[in-house]
Design brief:
This protein has one domain. It has 4 helices and 16 strands. It has helices at about 10-15, 95-100, 110-120, 205-210; strands spanning about 1-5, 20-25, 45-50, 55-60, 60-65, 75, 80-85, 105-110, 125-130, 135, 155, 165-170, 175-180, 185, 195-200, 210-215. A hairpin with a 5-residue loop joins strand 13 and strand 14.
Length: about 220
Amino acid sequence: MHLYLYGKKKFLGDLIEGKKGIRLSDIVHYSLLDNDLMRDNELEKNFTLDKNKVGIQINGYSLDTLAMPKNPSILLRPDRCFCVCFSTKKSDATLFSRFNADVCIEIDLDRLLEVLRHAVSTFVGMDVVHGPVTYYPDVMADPIPDIQSSLFYKRALYSVESEYRVALTIPRGKKRFKSPDGFEMDIFSDDPNDLHHLFISGNTPDINKYYISGVFFVE
């Protein structure tokens, strides 16, 4: 499967040339983007359910949803993680414009996952998760959102992006990274001006370009 990473050449040039590997960002980063078309609250997913089409039970007791003054809602909070967002659309003119991009990098998903899984293999409890984004309407009738996969949901207004996400999950309760020589640092920062990013880089350009199968520029 091939995925497509849109952006500016001045930022993605090192990846294209193999000087650095892929960058995964604290998921909060996508909540603070300057681009209004891309920015979304990634730490809260609010699903409004159609009270005429859903049933709710609490401890075996069925609630009368029709008697509710408005549609019930479910607020889910995905665990914080490091993520990179791709599209399944290749060199798409609409996305070049939407993302203010001048380059689109074609990524071989299987090869990327191979590199990421090897990179995190020494971090106990850290995992690689991936999948297409499900876009949900303002009012949902069916299906009810999968609570375990809230990272992979976005509001329907973003559906033009046809997004596919790859993320590195961090065990709950894990607060700091520690290097073999004893250096420690916080995994996440709560300072919006100092959010953390992970570059998964190899020792040679060939490793960093191992999963790149094409590069397309705006004509």
